[in-house]
UniProtKB/TrEMBL annotation:
Gene3D superfamilies: 1.10.1740.10, Winged helix-like DNA-binding domain superfamily/Winged helix DNA-binding domain. It holds the Pfam family Sigma70_r2. Belongs to the sigma-70 factor family. ECF subfamily. Keywords: Sigma factor, Transcription, Transcription regulation. GO terms for molecular function: DNA binding; sigma factor activity. SUPFAM superfamilies: Sigma2 domain of RNA polymerase sigma factors (SSF88946), Sigma3 and sigma4 domains of RNA polymerase sigma factors (SSF88659). Coiled coil: none annotated. This is RNA polymerase sigma-70 factor, ECF subfamily.
Length: 181
């Protein structure tokens, strides 16, 4: 399959075309993020988010540009957004005597926050149980047991690209379930 053909088929929601594009460009996006983050887990997470966002917005892709460039741009923007979120969690305070001090915001949860978190977690677990068992399993392994994609691949005895696609689909289906409620 040629890349142009895969993009056309992906725009028609062809799952094989999505898999082909993921297989073809995964190493490019992952390598780009690995250089930026210097952390394999962060690079994997950003790469998954990149393909998720790209596949959700595939109809907006302009073939005047290279597909790889479009993916890298999405990836770069996701990374920048994550850095901004991290930066906003720390506030800078300038003291009266012109000495600078950095104060880390107290983000420890209050008892009310803990109760809300428990309620949200219980709801999330109920929503996850609405997924098919193989999607439940991959979400459990990645987010609750915190296994890497490679470890999940070994555990499920499936190729790593299948694990990535399955996780991507599971997250999309879970998001739909949550939005519907």
């Amino acid at each position: 399959m040629e890349i142009e053909e895969a993009i056309k088929r992906a725009k028609l929601n062809d799952q094989k075309a999505f898999n082909y594009l993921l297989d073809t460009f995964w190493d490019n996006v992952f390598g780009f993020q690995l250089k930026r983050t210097q952390n394999e887990n962060d690079a994997e997470d950003i790469t998954i988010q990149t393909f998720s966002k790209a596949f959700d917005k595939i109809e907006t892709y302009d073939d005047a540009y290279k597909f790889k460039t479009w993916l890298i741009t999405i990836s770069k923007n996701i990374h920048i957004d994550l850095l901004r979120k991290e930066k906003n969690s720390i506030s800078q305070v300038i003291l009266n005597n012109d000495k600078e001090a950095f104060q880390i915001l107290d983000e420890s949860p209050s008892p009310e926050d803990e109760l809300i978190t428990e309620q949200h977690l219980a709801k999330l677990l109920r929503d996850i149980k609405k997924l098919k068992p193989h999607y439940q399993e991959v979400i459990n392994l990645r987010y609750f047991q915190e296994l890497s994609y490679k470890e999940i691949s070994k555990e499920l005895k499936e190729p790593m690209n299948n694990v990535k696609v399955k996780l991507l689909r599971a997250k999309k289906l879970l998001a739909e379930i949550i939005r519907q409620e």
